[in-house]
């Protein structure tokens, strides 16, 4: 049973993995329902383009698109991309509302996104923070699930324990006057 579960997990988790340097590898783990709700609460009052960095099966993208965001899910795992696209078609969600691209977000310029969601791993948060600080506009908001950015002060947070999510406003991160 354990071996079968591990086998199934590797089929879904491993495609695309080799393309990313070892120190930046992040495996697939879906957001829980409560974690997804916490992220949506932190997006309240926001609008525009949203990027989910490592979109997995698309659940954060689908939840955000139902709030009116134009979402792009970046995902290196081609199986998960295929699954998310099929689910979008099945749910009747149009491409501008939920778009899934088979791209490595480390190699993508994210400057056009005003909202960014991430559920990744503790080891990549500091380096990701440096990339986002270079690229995002002052009015952008970043939401991190489970693992906060170690070098940033959060503007807001929702939930507790494994489901906790933190919101970071780039103007605050950059310590700009209000
Ligand atoms: C912890 S899962 C989160 C999935 C989804 N966002 C959710 O909350 O359910 C992280 C995802 O990031 C993807 N990923 C890891 N590194 C990536 C990269 N450099 N570019 C695009 N996707 C990446 C993994 O394949 C995995 O699906």
Commentary on this structure:
The chain is of the alpha/beta class and 178 residues long. It has one domain: Vaccinia Virus protein VP39 (Rossmann fold), CATH 3.40.50. 34% of the residues lie in helices and 17% in strands. The protein is built from six helices and seven strands. The chain has helices at residues 2-13, 33-42, 59-65, 78-91, 122-135, 170-173, and strands at 49-53, 70-74, 98-101, 115-118, 141-145, 156-158, 165-169. It has a seven-stranded mixed sheet. Strand 6 (156-158) and strand 7 (165-169) form a beta hairpin. Helix 2 packs across helix 3 (59-65). The radius of gyration is 16 Å and the shape is globular. The model has no long low-confidence stretch (mean pLDDT 93). S-adenosylmethionine (SAM) binds at residues 20, 26, 28-31, 52, 54-56, 59-60, 74-77, 80, 104-106, 119-120. One of its GO terms (molecular function) is protein-lysine N-methyltransferase activity. Belongs to the ANT/ATPSC lysine N-methyltransferase family.
Topology, element by element:
Blueprint: H1 2-13, H2 33-42, E1 49-53, H3 59-65, E2 70-74, H4 78-91, E3 98-101, E4 115-118, H5 122-135, E5 141-145, E6 156-158, E7 165-169, H6 170-173
Parallel strand pairs: 1-2, 1-4, 2-3, 4-5
Antiparallel strand pairs: 5-7, 6-7
The chain binds S-adenosylmethionine.
Summarize the structure.
The chain is an alpha/beta fold and 178 residues long. The chain has helices spanning 2-13, 33-42, 59-65, 78-91, 122-135, 170-173; strands at 49-53, 70-74, 98-101, 115-118, 141-145, 156-158, 165-169. Strands 3-2-1-4-5-7-6 form a seven-stranded mixed beta sheet.
């Amino acid at each position: 049973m354990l071996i079968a579960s591990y086998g199934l997990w590797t089929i879904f988790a491993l495609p695309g993995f080799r393309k990313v340097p070892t120190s930046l590898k992040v495996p697939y783990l879906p957001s829980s329902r409560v974690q997804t709700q916490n992220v949506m609460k932190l997006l309240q009052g926001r609008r525009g383009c949203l990027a989910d960095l490592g979109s997995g099966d698309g659940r954060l993208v689908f939840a955000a698109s139902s709030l009116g965001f134009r979402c792009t899910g970046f995902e290196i795992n081609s199986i998960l991309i295929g699954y998310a696209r099929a689910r979008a078609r099945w749910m009747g969600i149009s491409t501008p509302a939920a778009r899934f691209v088979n791209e490595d977000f480390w190699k993508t310029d994210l400057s056009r996104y005003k909202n960014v969601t991430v559920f990744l791993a503790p080891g990549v948060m500091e380096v990701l923070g440096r990339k986002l600080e270079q690229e995002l506009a002052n009015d952008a908001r970043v939401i991190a699930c489970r693992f906060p950015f170690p070098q940033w002060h959060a503007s807001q947070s929702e939930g507790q324990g494994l489901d906790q999510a933190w919101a970071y406003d780039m103007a605050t991160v950059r310590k700009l006057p209000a």
